[in-house]
Every structure is written in structure tokens, then in C-alpha cells.
């Protein structure tokens, strides 16, 4: 299958591009490198040293003989996108290319506007590009579990059957997102759903939970193929951050009580979920929603697991309950359905002490690259 991976230089996109290429798909990558520029803006870095995209794809070709074409450009630039679609004629378009940090979107007005314009306009361009140039192409769009928020009822996969005043309908599940970033994903979902209904586009919205780990079988083939790993308070995410904090003997930064519960998945499962979605496309006109996570944990549970594994490895770390910089529920009901991907054959890599230990070992190799000033949160919701 001819597949474009937009955002293919990023944390989820790079291992996904490698995995799809390894499976024999004809992969090309779009990325505007903005994530690397954000490291400069935030005076931050990836914990792992990362090669340039050019070095990465050259190494992949050298090791496997597989060619991945790369296009450096912005999805907000429709003329650029049009040319790539005309040239590649993709059968699937995997869309990771968005600003994905909630704290980044909450820095100030400029960062909120950037996040929403980048994400909403980029996705609208992709929708128009598919409609005009490759109408049969399957859009596989990365959404987020955070679109739903934390309602006091179980979260369904995209839709809920509602009975109201004696009538019934299957309607989009209510959305209560917790940041301007998460809101941008809700806006995208609405735009994609509308495009499916009106133009007959086929789309899968993958409401992904928080991804942990960094390595996949393919990224481990050579240090030049290594994936990025974020640990700073803006781009680092809960479990990965805790493991890196443990490696540097920093107290684990649980915000508030730590009762915040979310869906999580291993990066190994991210790449497999995209493969499953690509190989089982949505029907023309269908707006399909999958909840892409494998397990639910509270933030405090994760911190306790990391603390225990670190202790077994001879590292003592405390759990610091910081004042929560976000406005969010800290104690709440959480139960979400995730059966669609399992029914299509996903075999989850579950979180065990050994999985944490493996990530910790990789992290320990690079721990001297941690910029300690970037660990504590600085962005507040109000
Ligand atoms: P990332 O920031 O590492 O990667 C995103 C990539 O997209 C970057 O390489 C960036 O340069 C590129 N990009 C951004 N805007 C672009 C534009 N306008 N044009 C071209 N390229 C652009 O993020 P990630 O962690 O790999 O996340 C990928 C996607 O998955 C995002 O949409 C994110 O919302 C979603 N997601 C991520 C997680 C997670 O835990 N990392 C969880 C759920 C959902
Ligand atoms: N948290 C802590 N301590 C930390 C970091 C986070 O307690 O050091 C808490 C947060 O307050 C929050 C939870 O952990 O309650 C998750 O925060 P996070 O930064 O790990 O994840 P989030 O901001 O939700 O965003 C990440 C990705 C985003 C993706 C989302 C999936 O950056 O791209 O959409 O996870 S989800 O959470 O399912 O919406």
C-alpha cells in the first residue's frame, strides 16, 4: 500500500514509518521539522540523541534496502501538500503532524492560537487534498482520549446511543477536553466527520491514550534510527517523565493527589494500531472512531510502579505531590471502551515491571543529557 506518514519525524510518526516500511508498504514522510525548532524555543532536548531525518532514512535504506521518500513542508501550505499528494497518490494518509502538547498550548495566547491554527488548518487542508486529488485515500487521523475528558459515565468509542424524550439516536460522544490542544483535536474530529458525511471521504479517528516507551523492533536496529524521548514539563508525558526522573534521582512529579486516570499504551502498540487501521480501511463516507489505548492507570499508580522498579535497580526516589498546574479532576470515575482495535487483532504489550525496567535501562545510558531545570512544571492553566 502507498502510505504517507505526516509528522513522520516525530515521536510516534518515526517508528510508525519504519514499521510500515518494514511490513512492505511504500512509505513517504511529510514533516516541517517544527518539533525540533520547539526544542530550541524551550531550551530543551530529546533525552536520546536523534539523527536528522535525512540520516535516518538513509540508514534505513542501507540496512533494509527500503526507500522512504521525504518531503519537508507544512500541512498549512496547501500548494505544497497538493504536489505531494499528486506525486505520491497515497492509498492511506496517516496524520500525526500536529502540535501535541497540552502545556505548550496553554503557555499564552500566541501558543494557543498557533496550536489551533496549525492543527485545524493542517487537517482541513488534508481533507480538501484528499477530496480533490485522491478521493479514495483513507485518512488515519490521530485524535486523543482527552477529547472525551473525564465524564461520570463510561466512555464509548466515538458514539453513544441516546434516548431522549421518547426518541433514540446514535450521536457523537460528548466532548469535555482539558486544554486548548485537546480542544483542537475535537475541532478536527468535527471537521473530519463533516467531510465524511458531505464528500464521502473514508476516515478513522484514533483517539489515542498516553504513549510510553520509545523503542520498537525497528528503531533498535541502529543508533541512527533511535526515537526521540521527551522528558521536559512541556512535552514529556506522565510515565516516560517518571522513569527519566527516577534515572536522575529526582522526586516523581505527581500533580496534586495523582488520582487522574488515563488510558495508556506502549509505542510498540501505537505502530501496530496504525498498521491495523491501514489494512482495514473505513468505508467511503464512514467516520470511524477507535479508542487506541490498552490499559488504564492513575498517575499515582504509575509513580508507585516506577518507584518500586527503581528501588529494585538500587535507585531511591520519592514521590512529590506538587501543586497541580492544570485545572482538572484529581479524583474521578474513569472507564473507557477499547474493543475495536482488539477485535481487529491488536495483541497488547502490557505494562509490567520488566517493561519499566527496560525503559529505565535505556534512559540511564543518556541520563547526563537531562537538563534538570526543565523537569518542574512552569506552565499554569490560570
Ligand atoms: P511529535 O511532536 O513528536 O510529532 C509531531 C510531528 O509533526 C513533529 O515531527 C512535527 O515537526 C510535525 N508537525 C507538526 N505540525 C506540522 C505541520 N503543520 N506540518 C508538517 N509537520 C508538522 O508528537 P507525537 O508524540 O509523535 O504525536 C503525534 C500525534 O499523535 C499527534 O497528533 C498527537 O496529538 C497524537 N498523540 C500523541 C500521544 C503521545 O503520548 N505522544 C498520545 C495521543 C495522541
Ligand atoms: N501529570 C502529572 N505529572 C507529570 C505530568 C503529568 O501528574 O509530571 C498528569 C497531568 O496532570 C495529567 C496526566 O498526568 O492529569 C497526563 O498528563 P500528560 O502530560 O502525560 O498527558 P496529556 O497532557 O494528556 O497529553 C499527552 C500527549 C497528547 C495526547 C494525550 C493523550 O502529550 O499529545 O493527546 O497525552 S490523553 O491524555 O489520552 O488525552
UniProtKB/TrEMBL annotation:
Pfam families xref list: Epimerase
Signal sequence coordinates: none
Identify the residues that the record assigns to the NAD-dependent epimerase/dehydratase domain, covering every copy. Answer: 3-291
Superkingdom, taxonomy of origin: Bacteria
InterPro entries tied to this protein: Epimerase_deHydtase, NAD(P)-bd_dom_sf
PANTHER family given in the database record: DTDP-D-GLUCOSE 4,6-DEHYDRATASE-RELATED
Record family assignment: Belongs to the NAD(P)-dependent epimerase/dehydratase family.
Please give the name of this protein.
Answer: NAD-dependent dehydratase
What species is given as this protein's source?
Answer: Planococcus halocryophilus
Where is the organism placed in the taxonomic lineage, from the top?
A: Bacteria, Bacillati, Bacillota, Bacilli, Bacillales
